[in-house]
Amino acid sequence: MRFAARKQSAVAVTATALIALAVPLLATTGASAASISTWDKVAQCEASGNWSINTGNGYYGGLQISMSTWRAYGGTQYAARPDQATKQQQILTGEKILAGQGQGAWPSCGPAAGLGADHADPYPTAPTYPNPASLANGTLVKSPNGPAVKVMIAGAGVAVAASDVTPDHYDLSKIVLIGDSAFNGLPGAPGAGTVVHDQAGGAERYVVVDGAALKISAADWTKDGYNTLPDYGVPSAWLKDAAQRDLPSGRVVMDQTGNDPARYVMVNGTALHISASEWTADGYNNEILMGVPTDWLASAVAKQLANGTIVKASSGADPTVYVMAGGVAAPLTYDEFIAFGYDKRPLMGAPGEYLKAAAAKAAPADGTMLVAPEGPTVWQVVGGKKRAMTADEFGAGKLSWDAVIRVPNALVAKLPTV
Fold this sequence. Notes:
The protein has 14 helices and 22 strands. With 418 residues, the protein is α+β, with helices and mostly antiparallel strands. The longest helix has 15 residues, at 87-101.
């Protein structure tokens, strides 16, 4: 076998090599590193690619390193012999030999593999990145492997749009790289209760709750105590989107001042009052209670539950399902629930007392458009009565068919005709 005739000059340690260990810069031949693929070529040439070979010729492993050289270049920190070390450990030791002796340490296989011309680091040290939690508010961050940029706000990474860079005065030359997992794991919105404003400027202030930005009125700024909290500038595009979001249905809220004992549950953007008896009986006391701006809450309470919202009592004691139409809760039979396609919509829980009052209303609000399964006529509520509508009232720039609510016959039948 070709290993038996191995030349002792190949990688045998010399006095020059020992000096190279002490003064590596003086002994370097110009090639001090090589890629894994190049080392694989050396191993293929020296040992047919067998990194654990020991033929008894005095040279070991994939790079056929002698024991004297293995010891001289620190290989024994890994294993007693080269063939007992891993491929990576043999290559790391080979790197030191290459730095000390050059590719001539492998007289035939080194040059044949291009060892002297390859200067790549086979095992580059992985870059270290800062922990996002250690970065100051306002720091721009990105992953090294993607174009997206975020700004650190109260522990969250808020997305920065391209349109934000100039008006928000973000300096892209000061971006800090953080690891992929850390970047992707950042919360997309500041935590509940964080006060924010548009980074581009302006007097309006908002408080973040569940990713939504709730506007704080001038009166609430001091009355609700928001003026005592840190106030962060956030990207304009993000704030515009967050200000249009509704709090999620089921979120239980109260007046931020704490002076009002009333509690409310959010359902499809409307705040519905929870009576004292329902607070515990319906399990609302088990939900997280969030304070919200006083004026914002008043506006949410005044909103009519959106037409077409499908609701039932949160307690579960009453199985009746209702469709909301102009503030009226119209009860649906199971057949109507399916026939109207309402089984495809979210079914939301609402306080039972609210539903009872909504079901007892005499008529939907003026302007509500209704259609019943008994006929094709679309009716519009006017002053508690109904009037038949014509097809030419709908279309581009006019009323939308999508705003027509499908309701039981009973609701339409009880309304007198104009």
